């Protein structure tokens, strides 16, 4: 079976078993190893990618369901020498990263969450992280960083808004 | 990587097409969140699958004043958004926005949740039980409508020659609540679930999930509440007492919790459920 | 600028950006299309004898390039005793034990070929628990235990007792016989904890110029090198180990396990071979923090003085001795720590069972012994009517007090730290109001740990561009040591900026011996070796500059990338100019340094079977928890968590705070959520993320921490490792707080909701140990 979808902005045609999990195609065929296959059961979130803009686990996504979809991986979020996503830059500045294996998935989940929930509070951020496990950091610095990022974003938007007036 | 290049994968564009594939032995692939874990359980993936996600009617939630229809391919996330704020659907919304984790909720569907036979902790089952939902199936002999209780009980045979297509809901509830008890704050399958609702006739409906292998109505407790002198005036403590007196569940033993624990926590969940109902009604 | 002010800073990590962009290539990300994939045939019974193992048909399966069994790698390895084969030889000792391995072009081909292996096993009656293993009639897990090579002398051994370590100081019998004492006895039992590093154990082996090269996700490149040499019966020098960035270790990767198999297959095939554990395999064969059973008795006067203490600690090592053999040592320093005790005797035994082998986990042994000691201390307070905090203040170790092995502790540390905790609590306030009708409890506990020193080597090359290259066998496992404290230390010594210090990835061909990243030792041991290397570099640099500037070297100093004449800022020459001059005259500038333990003395005759007689660098913690317990469901919510940690010197305070938050949360997992049980057929029941419950974001709270500086340390600039200990006293603080909240004795961890509800309903079976004899001496091999 042939499945056609867009991967990080380019057309891709897959010809093999449609039940192949997306994460295997990313890692084994494209060497896009930023997407990590940690639990393969949808609990850890390390394999999170965007499918049509939604953050979903790629371990449980059979490629057959992706026909016509737009898939973005961590490598596609800020490629080449492009600037980091503001959340990535904030994690770097805050010294939030330890072993780093969970962070690509964390960034993919939380970047979509911040886009959709710019007014989120701390508890809502934590709820959004239920499917992203981190074994090193104890989470709070990650949460702090998202809180700070959303605050900065709100201030920027408010400033821009008042200038428009 | 999976090896069978010969696998049949039908992306059905219509219910007829889906049924035809089913008749040829294809398994229904919903969001994939359960089936894709089969290899880790030592189970091979099916040789032939059919998906419903391209059938427009099955990916919608239709909300009419007195009738709501949920397509089988609707995800938990979409369901939660569609019904949020509608009085009476609080339990269903709670189930849809509380199940598993956010990534899974964006993928896992209503049909998948109801048709996974081995999944005792499905959140939607008790929530739909208190809604007294009707399940629409497409069988080889035509469409069929069946109550959710009967569906859950008989689904191993029913699904042998049918596809669950839609879930129908009436708007006859004043308020409802969904109380789930994972062992952490969230993220693991709840060891016990109580859905509770009060209908326009002030009758209470209570359903329990995850305690036994299949979710069911707690009719003994419903009757006890109805038999309270003058009808049941919602009181969390009294509800918990009656729940303890009428606890006729046989908790299943699992790695995460034993049967004693699942059964033991039920009165507390009922208490929380009644308290949540009071809060909802207070706001209404 | 002083050396100290040039070193201490909140340096961010240099590896963060690549990790955030998904560009970092961990070992598991280095699969190439031309590699062979290896898959293990693992035992599906917990105990048995291999009657037939015929792999010939597997050789003929499509894509198969090699099949290996125990006969291909007959050497045994271990810690203390060599009892462990790479692949089972004749005997199966645990469910999941590797028996054979297939290397094929694809993983699917390798997996398919496993089915062609003919294996016949005669099952044996398994020994699952320490109670069973200690029965006089118990079947021996290792029938040949007497014939094993002893790698380290001194431990008593017998049958299923893999190793026994004892410490004995003073006349304990006399102390217990005193008429003025109350005797308090407590028993505790704890389960295993699985590390769950996000990168599982994985290795890539190749065979190059007659030598093995293993790239692997390990904390101990030198151990992997040496074990590979042992099992393949090669001189270890014929094995090279390099270590890419490691995706979490927490102690799991402090021993060799599957790595040598890749070298074996590479030698057989001439190809590069990758072997990775699936998540299920990783969890089913995790070298967990061991389950343990502890009985402790104390003789306490009416004033609260602990005149006598004795304890028996049983540690389940699983099927092979592994780390537990070494860790029997730790009981003297953990259970024997915290308090001033008159006379004391402790015995710690590693017991063989037919269960997956256990291993090292962050603050190994200390976590549960601290739980046991602190709960026991609270039981003493309850029995004699003491306030728990006042009691601790009065009885914690002070300057000049003796440890279990007769070591003399220096300086008052725990006492002032308890005072600092009071200040911290006064600043934060308490959280009782958040309990909101639930059962509330709070507890303040203390803990004693140490920095595991031991040999490290470092070389520093000063380059013509003014940068320095630091070459060590240190590994970056996520804690940031190789990214933060080491470049900070080297930069501070040489007057450079940390980003001018290049840190070489661990390579046993490039750097000298190192015992590995663990026990909080890297900053101390590799740091000290690096300082020594820098001393040589500085000496050469200043001598060359002295010639160039016609100035005596002692009048020169290094700062801001220059060699300056003392008192004349901006004078002298740049480091690149001096290096260029040296390269042209005396040759490139480099220095090497080494470090090892100073072997702090114990009292003669006090320690038997110990790998460490006394602590070179003790580390202390004070942990305080506030909890709310739901009486209806048994759920424990942590309302507040406070830490005062002895860090010696904080080189990167922000990074240490990150370690404290992460370590405390792992401890919360151990105390409340993470449960490992053994099934009736000897498997770890929780072998996936559905059943093994790691703490998630909503389960945790921000930890408030105060870094206590100034306690004595032989570490560079007075530092102590800070990443190991944050987990130490979490089980203790939570256990004590929950006991107080529910008003029942807590004697087991983890405190999952079902266990807490059983405790509340008095349905929980409290630990009783018929296999621990009433008299202490009867629990020793004499």
TrEMBL record, chain A:
Gene3D superfamilies: 3.10.20.30, [2Fe-2S]-binding domain. It comes from Mesorhizobium zhangyense. One of its GO terms (molecular function) is oxidoreductase activity. InterPro entries: 2Fe-2S-bd (IPR002888), 2Fe-2S-bd_dom_sf (IPR036884), 2Fe-2S_ferredoxin-like_sf (IPR036010), 2Fe-2S_ferredoxin-type (IPR001041), 2Fe2S_fd_BS (IPR006058), Beta-grasp_dom_sf (IPR012675), Diverse_Oxidoreductases (IPR051452). Residues 1-77 form the 2Fe-2S ferredoxin-type domain. The keyword Magnesium does not apply. Keywords: 2Fe-2S, Iron, Iron-sulfur, Metal-binding, Oxidoreductase. It comes from the Bacteria. Pfam families: Fer2 (PF00111), Fer2_2 (PF01799). This is (2Fe-2S)-binding protein.
UniProtKB/TrEMBL annotation, chain B:
Keywords: FAD, Flavoprotein, Oxidoreductase. The keyword RNA-binding does not apply. Residues 1-174 form the FAD-binding PCMH-type domain. One of its GO terms (molecular function) is oxidoreductase activity. SUPFAM superfamilies: CO dehydrogenase flavoprotein C-terminal domain-like, FAD-binding/transporter-associated domain-like. This is Molybdopterin dehydrogenase. It comes from Mesorhizobium zhangyense.
Automatic annotation (TrEMBL), chain C:
This is Xanthine dehydrogenase family protein molybdopterin-binding subunit. SMART domains: Ald_Xan_dh_C. One of its GO terms (molecular function) is oxidoreductase activity. Residues 21-125 form the Aldehyde oxidase/xanthine dehydrogenase a/b hammerhead domain. SUPFAM superfamilies: CO dehydrogenase molybdoprotein N-domain-like, Molybdenum cofactor-binding domain. It comes from Mesorhizobium zhangyense. PANTHER family: XANTHINE DEHYDROGENASE, XANTHINE DEHYDROGENASE SUBUNIT D-RELATED.
């Amino acid at each position: 079976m042939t499945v056609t979808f867009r991967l990080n902005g380019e057309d891709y045609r897959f010809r093999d078993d449609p039940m192949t999990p997306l994460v295997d195609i990313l890692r084994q065929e494209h060497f896009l190893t930023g997407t990590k296959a940690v639990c393969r059961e949808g609990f850890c979130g390390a394999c999170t990618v965007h499918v049509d803009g939604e953050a979903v686990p790629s371990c449980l996504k059979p490629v057959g369901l992706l026909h016509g979809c737009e898939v973005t991986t961590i490598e596609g979020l800020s490629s080449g020498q492009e600037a980091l996503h503001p959340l990535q830059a904030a994690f770097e500045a805050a010294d939030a990263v330890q072993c780093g294996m969970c962070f690509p998935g964390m960034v993919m989940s939380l970047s979509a969450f911040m886009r959709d929930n710019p007014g989120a509070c701390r508890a809502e951020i934590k709820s959004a992280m239920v499917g992203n496990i981190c074994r090193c950091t104890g989470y709070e610095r990650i949460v702090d960083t998202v809180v700070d990022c959303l605050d900065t974003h709100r201030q920027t938007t408010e400033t821009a808004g008042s200038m428009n007036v | 990587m999976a090896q069978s290049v010969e696998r049949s994968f039908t992306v059905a564009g219509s219910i007829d097409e889906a049924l035809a594939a089913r008749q040829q032995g294809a398994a229904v692939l919903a969001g994939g969140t359960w089936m894709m874990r089969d290899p880790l359980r030592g189970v091979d993936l099916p040789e032939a699958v059919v998906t419903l996600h391209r059938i427009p009617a099955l990916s919608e939630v239709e909300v009419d004043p007195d009738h709501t229809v949920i397509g089988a391919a609707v995800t938990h996330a979409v369901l939660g958004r569609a019904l949020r704020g509608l009085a009476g659907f609080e339990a269903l919304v709670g189930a849809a926005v509380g199940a598993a984790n956010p990534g899974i909720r964006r993928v896992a569907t209503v049909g998948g949740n109801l048709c996974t036979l081995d999944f005792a902790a499905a959140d939607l089952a008790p929530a739909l039980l208190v809604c007294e939902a009707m399940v629409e199936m497409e069988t080889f002999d035509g469409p069929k409508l069946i109550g959710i209780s009967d569906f859950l009980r008989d689904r191993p045979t029913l699904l042998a020659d049918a596809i669950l297509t839609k879930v129908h809901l009436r708007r006859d509830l004043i308020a409802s609540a969904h109380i789930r008890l994972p062992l952490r704050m969230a993220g693991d399958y709840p060891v016990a679930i109580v859905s509770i609702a009060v209908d326009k006739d002030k009758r209470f409906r209570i359903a329990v999930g995850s305690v036994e292998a299949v979710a069911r109505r707690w009719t003994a407790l419903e009757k006890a509440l109805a038999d309270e002198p003058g009808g049941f005036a919602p009181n969390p403590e009294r509800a918990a007492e009656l729940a303890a007196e009428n606890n006729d569940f046989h908790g299943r033993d699992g790695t995460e919790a034993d049967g004693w624990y699942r059964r033991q926590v039920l009165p507390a969940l009922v208490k929380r459920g009644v308290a949540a109902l009071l809060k909802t009604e207070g706001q209404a | 600028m002083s050396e100290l002010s040039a070193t201490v800073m909140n340096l961010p990590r240099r590896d963060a950006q690549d990790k955030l962009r998904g560009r970092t290539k961990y070992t598991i990300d280095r699969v190439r299309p031309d590699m062979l994939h290896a898959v293990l045939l693992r035992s599906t019974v917990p105990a048995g004898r291999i009657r037939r193992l015929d792999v010939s048909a597997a050789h003929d399966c499509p894509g198969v390039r090699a099949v290996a069994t125990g006969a291909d790698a007959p050497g045994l390895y271990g810690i203390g005793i060599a009892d462990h084969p790479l692949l089972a030889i004749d005997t199966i000792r645990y469910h999941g034990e590797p028996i054979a391995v297939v290397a094929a072009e694809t993983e699917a081909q390798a997996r398919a070929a496993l089915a062609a292996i003919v294996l016949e096993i005669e099952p044996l009656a398994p020994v699952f628990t320490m109670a069973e293993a200690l029965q006089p009639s118990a079947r021996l897990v290792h029938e040949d235990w007497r014939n094993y090579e002893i790698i380290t002398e001194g431990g008593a051994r017998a049958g299923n007792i893999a190793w026994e370590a004892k410490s004995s100081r003073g006349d304990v019998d006399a102390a217990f016989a005193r008429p003025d004492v109350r005797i308090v006895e407590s028993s505790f039992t704890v389960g295993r904890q699985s590390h769950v590093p996000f990168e599982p154990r994985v290795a890539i082996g190749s065979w190059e110029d007659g030598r093995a090269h293993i790239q692997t996700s390990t904390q101990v490149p030198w151990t992997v090198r040496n074990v590979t040499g042992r099992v393949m019966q090669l001189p270890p020098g014929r094995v090279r180990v390099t270590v890419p960035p490691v995706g979490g270790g927490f102690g799991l990767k402090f021993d060799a396990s599957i790595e040598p198999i890749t070298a074996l297959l590479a030698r057989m095939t001439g190809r590069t071979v990758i072997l990775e554990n699936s998540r299920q395999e990783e969890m089913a064969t995790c070298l967990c923090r061991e389950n343990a059973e502890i009985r402790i008795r104390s003789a306490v006067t009416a004033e609260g003085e602990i005149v006598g203490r004795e304890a028996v600690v049983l540690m389940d090592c699983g099927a092979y001795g592994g780390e537990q053999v070494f860790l029997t040592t730790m009981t003297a320093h953990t259970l024997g720590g915290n308090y001033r005790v008159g006379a004391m005797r402790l015995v710690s035994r590693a017991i063989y069972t037919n269960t997956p082998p256990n291993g090292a986990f962050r603050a190994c042994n200390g976590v549960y012994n601290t739980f046991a000691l602190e709960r026991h201390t609270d039981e003493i307070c309850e029995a004699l009517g003491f306030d728990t905090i006042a009691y601790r203040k009065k009885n914690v170790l002070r300057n000049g007090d003796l440890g279990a092995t007769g070591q003399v502790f220096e300086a008052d540390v725990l006492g002032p730290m308890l005072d600092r905790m009071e200040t911290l609590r006064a600043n934060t306030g308490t959280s009782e109001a958040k309990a909101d009708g639930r059962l509330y409890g709070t507890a303040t506990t203390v803990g004693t740990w140490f920095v595991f020193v031991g040999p490290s080597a470092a070389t520093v090359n000063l380059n013509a561009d003014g940068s320095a290259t630091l070459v060590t066998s240190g590994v970056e496992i996520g804690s940031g040591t190789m990214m933060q404290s080491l470049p900070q230390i080297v930069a501070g010594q040489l007057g450079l900026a940390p980003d001018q210090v290049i840190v070489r990835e661990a390579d046993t061909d490039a750097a000298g011996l190192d015992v590995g990243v663990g026990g909080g030792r890297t900053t101390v041991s590799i740091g000290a070796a690096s300082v020594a290397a820098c001393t040589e570099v500085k000496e050469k640099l200043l001598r060359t500059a002295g010639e160039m500037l016609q100035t005596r070297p002692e009048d020169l100093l290094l700062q801001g990338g220059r060699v300056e004449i003392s008192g004349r800022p901006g004078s002298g020459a740049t480091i690149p100019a001096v290096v260029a001059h040296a390269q042209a005259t005396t040759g490139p500038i480099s220095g090497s340094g080494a470090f090892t333990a100073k072997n702090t003395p114990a009292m003669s005759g006090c320690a038997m079977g110990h790998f460490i007689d006394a602590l070179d660098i003790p580390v202390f913690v004070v942990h305080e928890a506030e909890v709310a317990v739901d009486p209806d469901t048994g759920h424990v919510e942590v309302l507040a968590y406070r830490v005062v940690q002895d860090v010696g010197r904080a080189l990167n305070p922000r990074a240490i705070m990150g370690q404290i938050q992460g370590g405390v949360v792992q401890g919360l997992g151990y105390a409340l959520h993470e449960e490992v049980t053994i099934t009736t057929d000897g498997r770890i029941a929780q072998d996936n993320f559905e059943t093994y419950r790691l703490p998630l974001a909503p389960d945790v709270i921000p930890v408030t921490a105060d870094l206590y500086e100034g306690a004595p340390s032989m570490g560079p600039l007075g530092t102590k490792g800070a990443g190991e200990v944050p987990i130490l006293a979490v089980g203790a603080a939570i256990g004590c707080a929950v006991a107080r909240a529910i008003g029942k004795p807590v004697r087991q961890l983890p405190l999952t909701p079902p266990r807490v509800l059983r405790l509340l309903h008095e349905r929980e079976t409290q630990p009783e140990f018929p296999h621990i004899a009433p008299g202490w001496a009867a629990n020793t091999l004499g």
